[in-house]
């Protein structure tokens, strides 16, 4: 069961749903319920709205099943009721634009004291994390001042965590040896898409020495 209410509206609608249902379907159910109670309004599309987790700046949207979202999984584990607010996409876009204007103003204030004029600004290409459907990837460059013997091989194990929960399988680098600096320059790709990473996810590393078996 999930609870949904519209922004600036007292009514709270509850729906018994399948964990494999996607967020757009919940949008449809909430809009139909409001039309049933309050009568016909201007034609609206479920794609004009997005589900915001109540009390958080966290959103649930897209074609993925609900159970794939970290917030839903936490509610299931804790046996709590997921509670959403249905917000118009245009309001989120407006809020985003206002934040970008504020950031631009802060940058311009800080740069106004420079003696030389700034070059003409280029158009910025903005990409959103939630639109990146590629696997999350990093480049392991090097490790400095590792306390190992020159002949001892070491490797790095990297993992993505949300709290104490491991989000996907850990990745292990190749084994190399060195005196002080160990250089990998090796890409590490995780079995999770960038858009599926929850807020406050942490990337953790551990360095292991490879010991010969006796």
TrEMBL record:
GO molecular function ontology, one term from the record: kinase activity
Q: Does the keyword Zinc-finger apply?
A: no
Identify the keywords attached in UniProt to this record, alphabetized.
Kinase, Transferase
Under the heading PROSITE patterns, the entry gives:
C2_PI3K (PS51547), PI3K_RBD (PS51546)
Which InterPro entries does the entry link to? C2_domain_sf, PI3K-type_C2_dom, PI3K_Ras-bd_dom, Ubiquitin-like_domsf
Q: Where is the C2 PI3K-type domain?
A: 130-214
Positions of the PI3K-RBD domain: 1-88
Keyword Ribonucleoprotein in the entry? The reply is no
Family to which this protein belongs: Belongs to the PI3/PI4-kinase family.
What is the name of the protein in this document? Phosphoinositide-3-kinase, catalytic, beta polypeptide
Which species? Mustela putorius furo
């Amino acid at each position: 069961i999930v609870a949904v209410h519209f922004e600036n509206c007292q009514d709270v609608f509850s729906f018994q749903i399948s964990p494999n249902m996607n967020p757009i379907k919940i949008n449809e159910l909430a809009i139909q319920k409001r039309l049933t109670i309050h009568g016909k309004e201007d034609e609206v599309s479920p794609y004009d709205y997005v589900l915001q987790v109540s009390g958080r700046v966290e959103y649930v949207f897209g074609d993925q099943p609900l159970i794939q979202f970290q917030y839903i999984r936490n509610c299931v584990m804790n046996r709590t009721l997921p509670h959403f607010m249905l917000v118009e996409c245009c309001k989120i876009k407006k809020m985003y634009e206002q934040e970008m204007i504020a950031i631009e103003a802060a940058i311009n204030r800080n740069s106004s004291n420079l003696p030389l004029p700034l070059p003409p600004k280029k158009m910025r290409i903005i990409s959103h994390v939630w639109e990146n459907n590629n696997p999350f990837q990093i480049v392991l460059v090097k490790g400095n001042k590792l306390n190992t013997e020159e002949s001892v091989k070491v490797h790095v194990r990297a993992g993505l965590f949300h709290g104490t929960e491991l989000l996907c399988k850990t990745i292990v680098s190749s084994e190399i040896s060195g005196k002080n600096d160990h250089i990998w320059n090796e890409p590490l790709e995780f079995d999770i898409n960038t858009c599926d990473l929850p807020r406050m996810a942490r990337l953790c590393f551990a360095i292991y020495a490879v010991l010969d078996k006796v």
